[in-house]
Amino acid sequence: MDEKIDRMYQHVRSVFRQPGSHGLDHTLRVVYLCEQIGNRERADMRIVLPAALFHDIARPLEEEKGIPHEVEGARIAEQFLRSIRYEEELIQKIIHAIRTHRYRSVEKPETLEARILSDADKLDAMGAVGIARTFMRAGEHHGEIGDATSHIREKLLNLKSLMYTETARTIAEERDRVLHDFLETLTAEITIPGSPPEKPVTGKKSESE
Predict the structure, then answer these.
(1) Degrees to nearest 5, angle at CA 207 with 113 and 72
(2) What is the rounded distance in angstroms from the CA atom of residue 74 to the CA atom of residue 88?
(3) Pair 18, 53 in one domain
(4) Residues 24 and 97 in one domain
(5) Do 52 and 100 fall within a single domain?
(6) Which of 38, 113, 155, 168 sits 20 to 30 Å CA-CA off 196?
(7) Residue 153 is part of a domain; what is its CATH number?
(8) 98/163 same-domain check
(9) 98 with 131, same domain?
(10) DSSP label at 107?
(11) pLDDT of the chain along its 209 residues, tens only?
(12) Domain annotation covers residue 207
């Protein structure tokens, strides 16, 4: 098992050659969160860990060609896992987790393992790391402070209420508080007297991810 996980990691690592808001470091943090949540929720780690490693492997293709990364990522994972003779029953569950992990996925996670991946991916968009990634993302799209704060309000402040597992909900509480505190502080620092007020620190559903 460990040898096959290492082969998966080496393959995923070879794909992420450029840093970014959805780079290899994001994947590794999601893997770590999946380990934390999965162990507490008694999930099958033979499903959770491969799904976490491969969940964003098609991000570079989406950015280049517009292909939904959750769909293409599931296809890439299936092909690779079969090439290393991973158990077929596990492969199908891994594919489901990858296809349903995204914030705006049409398909919803139906298994514990898929829900854990979805939770871990959302958690990495929250807290201090979520703020850092949001500003990286704004820079990648030639945006500015207002674009980043809008993303936090319109998406990230919704995430706490979308967690599936009890473990993730506990982690999300603190990370959500960090988001609120940051927005309040930033708003105070960038507000120019006489200018239109910033939007209140509450979220609405976004389709940005």
Answers:
(1) 55
(2) 14
(3) yes
(4) yes
(5) yes
(6) 155
(7) 1.20.58.1910
(8) no
(9) no
(10) S
(11) 589 999 999 999 998 877 767 789 999 999 999 999 999 999 999 999 999 999 999 987 777 777 789 999 999 999 999 999 999 999 999 999 999 998 877 789 999 999 999 999 999 999 999 999 999 989 888 899 999 999 999 999 999 999 999 999 999 999 999 999 999 999 999 888 766 665 555 444 444 45
(12) no
Are the C-beta atoms of residues 183 and 199 closer than 8 Å to each other?
no
In a domain, 206, yes or no: no
Determine the Cα–Cα distance for residues 97 and 94; give it in Å rounded to an integer: 5
Residue 205 neighbours by CB distance under 10 Å: 11
Instruction: Return the structure tokens found at 199.
Output: 């939007």
Is residue 204 included in any domain, yes or no? no
**Long-range contacts made by residues 94-98, C-beta under 8 angstroms, separation at least 24?**
94/47, 94/50, 94/51, 94/54, 97/47, 97/48, 97/51, 97/55, 98/51, 98/54, 98/55, 98/70, 98/73, 98/74
pTM: 0.88
Based on the fold, state whether residues 8 and 93 are members of the same structural domain. yes
- Tell me the residue range of the domain where 52 lies: 2-107
Residue among 160, 179, 158, 162 at smallest CA distance from 171: 160
